[in-house]
Amino acid sequence: MKHSxxxxxxxxxDRQRGTRTAPERMDIDPTAIPRVLADTFLLGDGPAGELVxxxxxxxxxxxxxxxxxxxxxxxxxxxxSRRDIQDLLAIVCDEATATVAGVTAQIDDGAxxxxxxLLLPLRHHGRxxxxxxGVLAPINRPYWLGTMPVTALSLGVLRHIEPMAAPxxxxxxxxxxxxxxxxxxVIYDGGRQ
Length: 193
What we know:
By secondary structure, the protein is an alpha+beta fold. It is 19% helix and 35% strand.
C-alpha cells in the first residue's frame, strides 16, 4: 500500500477483525481513525442491491466536487472498467478478501491523477455482501483537486491482501544425547570409521 490512509485503515481493520475474516460493521469506530476519515468511505446496499455510498469523506467527495452519499460506487468508473470493478466488489464481498488497487482519475480536459483504492469487507448482521469499508486517495495531489471534478475512474493493477500468518514458533536449541552441536548443526557419530 502506497498511501498512509490505506495503511492506517487496513491496520485498524485488521486489529478489529482479530481472528475473524472481517470485523462487524459495529466494530468500526470512526473516532479511532480520525486521520484517515477524509479519505474513507462506506458502501452499503442500495435499493436495487447495488453498493452505494453510505458515507464518503471530504477528500473523497472533493475528487468529484460533490457529495457522493446515495450514489452507486460502480457509476464512478468509466465504461471499460465497470465490469472489472463489479467483479472486484464481488470478490471482496463474497470471499471476504481485502484488496488494494491502483486507479486513474480523469477530468474533462484529459488531465489524470493516480489514486489508491482500498476495499475492505465488513460483516453486517452476519452477511459480507452488504458493507464495504474503503479508501480512495490520491498518490500525488494534482493542482486541480477539488476545483475540477473527476469524470471517470479506471481500474489499474490490483492485489488481494492475504491475512498475516501467525508467526512460527522459535526453535530452541536442544542437546541430543548421542550427538554434538558444531556450527549450528547436530553431528552424530557413525558411518565409516
